[in-house]
């Protein structure tokens, strides 16, 4: 039994080495036992070989997170301010556009840019709420009621150039603002005042509204208006009588006369060319009898020339700045000049100075004589035009109405109307007898520089920087024809002064053009200048046209000459 136990123990202890020795050690041990004892040895079954498992690596513990970086305060040297050294602990110079954290207090500070953006947003929101509140308010639709409400609220009843709808919108915004500010008492008081005024007796209401709505003029202006009224009525009666006679007379052939005048205009050729001054020329004008020509230039001097050979007679010196225009009187041989020195001067034909008209606040542009020869009109860059008495030199009228500089001025042939044009792209027609603006001609998209009345009494021509010439019918109060006249701005326009059979335009494209007064078709192009054409004038019979330019030359165009050779500028 002991042997059995030992055999069993040896067998058990040998099992771990079985895969290496294949049981040889066990068999050899059994062979040494005595033959009398033969133990039963069970068959040894080799255990299955299980490959050893790979060791599971140990999971390292998670590393602690790094602490958030803290921006250290920027230490800057103290900057002297007003002689004192100051220091600041704030980080105001950072490039953070939204804000920063104050290191001292730990509070978030909004940057200036963010504050401005927030202010703009708040302002836009306030405007939106104001418009919503205004849309909910009840505003009178009658213009007289709107004016009354504005008067009771202490606001101007009308602004310059304000229309009915604009006035109503202004009242709506004022009421919305008062409502937003909590001033309902003022609104209620204004409403009560309106009701009281509506229920008041008629006589009391009329006595309340008795106040002057105009600027009272001088006695000289009143006398001038009376004279202009009488003068214009007589001239208008003669014009209408002549038109009726020509219409009813079977021997009168209007179309034939117009055709003859347009044929003469089509035969215009360069007759004379003369150097006018050392600097560019700015204006020209024929005398009433056509025997004298006046020009002015940027030197400030004006010159008189004899016709038709353009020979210099005299020089008019008196302006301290450049001359801008010159015009002959329609009744005698006196003339007037305008200048950038803010004055206009009146001369006789001998070159003697008779009057100086001063009062404008800025340089003058164009000037024009009233058909009676008693008054002179001047246009200026101070946004006004003025009427002067030739005999006394007194300023009769200071007329406002343009929002920008006034450049051109013209008088109706009857003397009743004046027309002005300016850099506000408008032309206005004024009644000299009453002082009212009777027409505002809107159509040009750029400044209007030239204006002229037709002798027929109802057509008006304007030209400007939009390169077009517009023809206005005063009877219909609108433009009925637009001429795409030039490739550059139109500096001046002039109707043929006797019948208005044709129209002449001068332009900065170095040409002047003649247009039919019947259908406004092109008749003739006057080419010859080498620079901008600044001014043009037409002789009374329509047989001569004069142009002046920045090339310093005076050119006389005539339909009577047989010489068709273009003369050299020199």
From TrEMBL:
The UniProt record lists the keyword DNA-binding: no
WD repeats: 316-348, 357-398, 399-440, 441-482, 483-525, 526-567
Biased composition (Pro residues): 69-80
GO cellular component annotations of the record: U4/U6 x U5 tri-snRNP complex
PROSITE patterns xrefs: WD_REPEATS_1, WD_REPEATS_2, WD_REPEATS_REGION
Pre-mRNA processing factor 4 (PRP4)-like domain ranges (all copies): 141-194
Example GO molecular function: U4 snRNA binding
GO biological process: mRNA splicing, via spliceosome
Repeat found in the keyword field: yes
Segments for region (Disordered): 1-38, 69-117
Keywords: Repeat, WD repeat
A Pfam family annotated for this UniProt entry: WD40
Compositionally biased region (Polar residues): 23-35
Superkingdom of origin organism: Eukaryota
Record-given protein name: Pre-mRNA processing factor 4 (PRP4)-like domain-containing protein
